[in-house]
Amino acid sequence: MRKHITLLTALMLFAMWCPAQPRPVEVPKNYNFIFYNNNDLRYDAASPTMKTFFEKWRRVTATHQGNVNIVHIGGSHVQAGTMSNTIRTNLMHAYPDLIAGRGMIFPYSAAAKCNNPRDYRVHCPQKVTLTRNIYKEHTYPLGLCGIAITAADSATEVAIAMNEPTVDYSTSRIIIFGHSDEHVVPLLRIADRNIYPSYADARTERFVFNLSQATDSFTILLPCQAGERFTLTGICLDNRRSGFSFHSIGVNGASVPDYLRCQNLTRDLRLLRPDMVVFGIGINDASGKDFDTAVFRANYLALVDSIRVINPDCAFVFITNNDSFRRQRRNRYEVNRNGLLAREVFYRLANETNGAVWDQFEVMGGLKSMDKWFKAKLAQKDRVHFTQEGYVLIGNLFYNALLDAYTSYTRKHPVDRPTSTATPDSFTNPLDFLNPLSQQ
Questions:
Q1: Given a cut of 90, is residue 1 above it in pLDDT?
Q2: Domain range for residue 210?
Q3: How far apart are CA 66 and CA 320, in angstroms?
């Protein structure tokens, strides 16, 4: 009997530390211009940061303790939200018991003519002013989101509702980032009840709302009286559960220097303490004919350094620019050969930072392939952006490459039994603090 119990215990431990691996998602294979066989993450097998990331992934999925935080930063490809949400929902479906908070969001469409991701709805009937990191002058220092809206109306309300039916993104902690010289304090309205912040801190410019019940919709009230203003720079949604959080940060038209000019980027990012940052910035840097690869590389290294201040073990994945075209005149486009130059820089950056490359340029078919994507209705007429279907395909391809890299790692580095190599904060959610404002 004792042998049976010992065997059962061993099997339980094996199941816990060697859980079944999720499968890649299916992608259409009928596009003969896509290089499906080249869809992989490319990195040095000895990379310590990639190893740290994969080990944390393994620990969290095995123990259901702790959080894996991935931050996707980019331009319009990311602000559109479809690619990021495709990767995010694939992760959540692969690990349905490990759905952590939705993470950082921004109410883009609260401002006129500003597009919003589809996985959450935003409604703001009052007029607000918009500031983006691409502007030469910022009316107020920007943070991680690289964008801000400013309210000056006593009745300003920003309603937000989750709109991803396949994933439960209900939240029990809402953190609002914002500033007011007049000390305006934001409120929440949930089910006709106004809620005041549980904590407020002027130094980190955060207002934390700990909710007694989880919710998937809420309204932010910005009660500005005459002459008062409140600038909202971001919202973080947390559910206090262990699992995966995939944060997406995107600003239309943004380049690497635009994020470097966000004075509070590091301060805000400290709250998330990312385990991996996926860079999708570069299409705007390389759009002009005077593209300088040396400057591009230097700017990226500066951005990497600002993140390493927060987490020296953070893993970096560089997504190469997609193939693109420049508009010459009406209905006439020419291929942008800077995509090839940028691609070389991304490989060099990955080598210098112990990071990885996802060669989107190669996977989609290389130079001039964007025209084929357009003819297949996977890209828009400008031959820079993808269609909804195209972004879903790109997101699925990236997810498969990431999952394949993790699966390959775990096969090459099996775990026979639980280890004690975890650091003290290995199972800690960066958002799960006793006094979230005084300890940051």
A1: no
A2: 101-240
A3: 31
